[in-house]
Amino acid sequence: MSRARTARRIAAGAAYGGGGLGLVGVAAVGVVLAELQFAKRTVGTGLPDPPRADGLYGSEFGGPELSPGPLRLGMLGDSTAAGLGVRRARQTPAALLASGLAAVAERPVELRNVALSGAMSDDLDRQVSLLLDGDRPVPDVCVIMIGANDVTRRMPPTQSVRCLTGAVRRLRLAGSEVVVGTCPDLGTIEPVYQPLRWLARRVSRQLAAAQTIGVVALGARTVSMGDLLGPEFAANPREMFGPDSYHPSAEGYATASMAVLPTLCAALGVWPESDRLDVSRDEDMLPVAKAASAAAGQAGTEVTAVRGPWVLLKHRRRRRVQAEEPSGADPGTGAAAAGVSGPA
What we know:
Number of strands: 9
Strand order of the largest sheet: 1-3-2-4-5-6-8-9-7
Mean pLDDT: 78
Helix content: 40-55%
């Protein structure tokens, strides 16, 4: 069964109930997940809690008291969204995205990160409530990174997609733009060996495609996290993965953030490139299931709804992002900068 067809079945099951594993059998999935759990125990995390990166970024573009005020960015998801494995706030994906968005939009960005290490998609409802409840303004845009724990802890894919789409729906109804970084390719985890690696890849890509189908129908955009992210991780696993060989390193998070940044900015209409297709980069307008399947197999690919069942499949040019600490952060944590530059 094709990945597109399986993804459609999962997404339909999430919307209407039911649905099955589809692409790989129950026994095979059980073996894969057992191996992934063994891999996580083998490497062990032993990592401290991720640093807090909440605060104001891009203060050089004006303070919160100036009109039109800062853009508001919310970050949700699991350990990848939280930045587990790095020591400085400036190295987390949320800080990198906030810095990059501020530089592109030339406006300060107020960041609030409610992601939780170890979270599965069923925690997103709680995270959305943290962002929307209370007197705080609704975020202008939210980034969600989720899915890996759903796979390793055997959450049914239909339930996973249902929880994700429920969170996206709440954010969209509240008036927030949403960008989803889909389930990463678990076939890249070094302690998982062949032939189980290709099965892990299939299961995670299947979920990523189904996530895309589910959320683009709600007006969200997706970015394929793929193998976090493609050639860079495959060629330099020692640099791109952290000390536990499971979570990204600072370099890995920066690579992932550079892939998400263009879509984040485009969702707010501040990216210099338009949504027009660039055929020189193999961009196309496709049925959603076909686009979701293609995106799951190619990291860094954006899927954006246009009309009806048709979506845009885009490969936006990456730009390096300025990494900084939020205003008022401990100066001892420092600030590194690669600067917003040309296409990477």
